[in-house]
Amino acid sequence: MTAPARRTAPANRRRAFDLRSTALFFALLAVAVSILGFAARTVADTFDRHPGWAFALALVGVAGLLGLRRRLHVARAARRAAAALDEAAREAADELESLAPPRESPATGTGVDYDALDPEEFEAAIAALCERDGCSGVDVVGGAGDLGADVVAVTPDGRRVVIQCKHYGDTHRVGSQELQRFGGTCFTVHEADVAVLVTTSDFTTPAAEYAEQCGIVCVDRQSLLAWTDGTGTRPWEATGDARAGQ
Asked: pLDDT by residue (tens digit) across 188-200?
């Protein structure tokens, strides 16, 4: 026996008319229109009885619109002014930076005033020269108990260089006793492959002779300035005469 086919509702079947919902909608609409009409009549009556109020409210509204527009205009102008000032400040800073002379390290510039440095700064300047010229493991070890070593480093070809720094005035030359004290520790204690004594002054003749005998490189003021500006020999490259730059 064949079962009867079920009827399916068409997909585009219209929704049944709801009389209750329709009536409620029109009722609410009527209430809203009545409220708006009552408010409009009340305002109109008030303006008829008190025309001055209407004029005052109109002025207040116009003033409010003008004030709002003015505030917006002022805010936009302030933002534009701030952006212009910021751009001008950046341009001025760039211009000043371009006009300023390049800064030079006190250890690597060509016009270094070594006389203006104190002994500790002089040691740091010599260490910076070593780093500039390719030394590695550069360390400032000067101080109490340094046993004559102020700066130690490893040259680019792998030799250990030990440097003693003497920050003296032009009239205070390094004497032979100072060279002898340094010579007694630079090789045996500090195991230097290259021993250097650098000064802002000069060496006495006995000191220079002792240094040559012991193989200590002497860097006087003239040789130091040549090393600094790159025109002289680096201390660890000095051969023959123990005085660098000659």
From this structure: 999 999 999 999 9
